Amino acid sequence: MHRVRLPLILLVPLSALALALGPASARPATTGIALTGTTGPGFTISLKDANGTLVSNLAAGDYTITIHNQSDPSTGVTHNFHLKGPGVNMLTTFDPGTTVWNVTLTDGKYTYLCDAHPTIMIRTFTVGNAPPPPPRVPKLSGRVAGKSITLRKGSSLVKSLKAGKYSIAVKDASTKDNFHLKGPGVSRKTSVPKRGHTAWTVRLRAGKYTYFSDAHRKLKRSFRVK
């Protein structure tokens, strides 16, 4: 009688098999030091570390960046978060939500901005021994609503400013009035019948500036630039 030889079955541990086959497509992404990016609401954008401090300089290495897009489509204004610099060029959509990136940052200067509002929603930071970023452009906020018109720096009503470049986020909440800023070298305004948000970058010179409604000239305030 002839014996039938059966093939030898080699039992291989699953971990060894996985190594032989190479990395799987569902393999978890490598994570690094945690950072948090935020775009919106309004015309705000930031990148902060785990302590909630605005990033100005980082060590080169691996980072996990969680982006919160807090745009409000009901206002008609949406934003995204675009990070670019040495070896990195990543951006979110303009839809509200959360996105997580794993990135490797190397020595150099990085910029993050909203592609729809790149002159007012933009910040920079450095990695490694790169020179520090230039000073930020001061931000002002204008608003017209009902019988009120204001221009503020932080929570304070603007009464005087130093000459220089400023970014102004204007909220026009009225269909009967607009926001018109006028002074040396500047004449910018919103539309009387329309509500909405807009953003301006202006250079203010020494002199007197007035902001008012074109529909009701008694609705006005002024400030001086030194």
Largest sheet: 5 strands, mixed
The order of strands across the largest sheet is 3-9-8-5-6
The CATH architecture of the largest domain can be given as Sandwich
- Would you identify the CATH H-level superfamily of the largest domain? Cupredoxins -  blue copper proteins
The ordered H/E elements are HEEEEEEEEEEEEEEEEEEE
**Rg for CA atoms:** 27 Å
Topology-level CATH name of the largest domain: Immunoglobulin-like
Question: What is the share of helical residues?
Answer: under 10%
What is the CATH class of the largest domain?
Mainly Beta
Structural class: mainly beta
Relative strand content:
over 45%
Poorly predicted regions = 6-28
The overall pLDDT, averaged over residues, is 86
Number of helices: 1
Number of discrete domains:
2
How would you describe the shape? elongated
Please, could you describe this protein's structure?
This protein is 4% helix and 47% strand. The chain has one helix and 19 strands. It is elongated. With 226 residues, the chain is mostly beta strands. A five-stranded mixed β-sheet has the order 3-9-8-5-6, with no helix packed on it. A five-stranded mixed β-sheet has the order 12-11-10-14-17, with no helix packed on it. β1 (33-39) and β2 form a beta hairpin. The longest helix is centred in the N-terminal third of the chain and has 8 residues, at 14-21. It has two domains: 33-127, Cupredoxins -  blue copper proteins (Immunoglobulin-like, Sandwich), CATH 2.60.40.420; 139-225, Sandwich (Immunoglobulin-like), CATH 2.60.40.420.
